[in-house]
Amino acid sequence: MLTLPKQFDENEWFIITVVLLSSVLFKLPKRLPTVITILILFLSMAIPKIIDHSIAAAWPYNLYDLTDSRKFELFDVILDGVYCPFGYLCIYFYDKFHPKGFKIVLYILSWTVFAVFFEYIAVKLHVFNYRGWKLIYSFPTYMVVISLFLLFYKFVTYYYKRTLEV
User: Fold this and answer.
1) What are phi and psi of 60, to 5 degrees?
2) What average pLDDT does range 44-54 have in this prediction?
3) Residue 7 covered by a domain
4) H/E run at residue 35
5) Best exposed site among 14, 76, 115, 129 by fewest CB in 10 Å?
6) Residue 76: what pLDDT?
7) Are 44 and 87 contacting, i.e. CB atoms less than 8 angstroms apart?
8) Dihedral angle sign, alpha carbons of residues 159, 163, 165, 166
């Protein structure tokens, strides 16, 4: 059973604020087919979940804790919703601007810097509590994840368009 936090403090407020601010996404003009949007949102939750459970919670690594408790609590679940807007906006603007060549490198770097800065704020507000992890490790991690995320989008878009042609 999910437990409530023992103390309601800045990390819970941060998570709630980001989830509420994410509601603005519903006001954006629709750019992506619904099925692709759903895949992007699920992948946006799955990637951090896999990473968090692989290197954060799993022995022998246990490099960081999420929120206040080492136990799984309600705000660990709500935290999953924080990742969705990041992934959606990354793909939304990629689809809108279609960066090519060197601009794709700048695009990935820009999103990486944004992600590291966002993580820095989350660390300061105790959403992530490092126990061996360093913020600098996140930079190459985000570079790889964002690159793979964009490749996934190109892959599903390609197959989506092919199914429309049939």
Assistant:
1) -90, 0
2) 87
3) no
4) helix 34-51
5) 129
6) 83
7) yes
8) positive
What number is the average pLDDT over the span 41-66?
82
The predicted-structure confidence for 13-40, as pLDDT tens digits, reads as follows 999 999 999 999 889 999 999 999 999 9
| Helix, coil or strand: residue 100 | coil
| pLDDT of 58 above 70 | no
Residue 81 covered by a domain = yes
Backbone phi and psi for residue 158, each to the nearest 5 degrees, phi listed first: -60, -50
* Domain membership flag for residue 52: yes
User: Under a CB-based contact definition with an 8 Å cutoff, are residues 64 and 133 in contact?
Assistant: yes
Q: Are 110 and 71 in contact (CB under 8 A)?
A: no
Would you say residue 97 lies in a domain?
yes
Count structural domains, the chain: 1
Rounded Cα distance, 55 and 59, in Å: 8
Rg of the chain's alpha carbons, rounded to an integer?
17
Q: What is the mean pLDDT of the chain?
A: 91
Q: Which domain holds residue 86?
A: 35-158
Please determine, for residue 118, whether its predicted confidence score (pLDDT) is greater than 80: yes
For the segment 149-159, what is each residue's pLDDT rounded down to a tens digit? Answer: 999 999 999 99
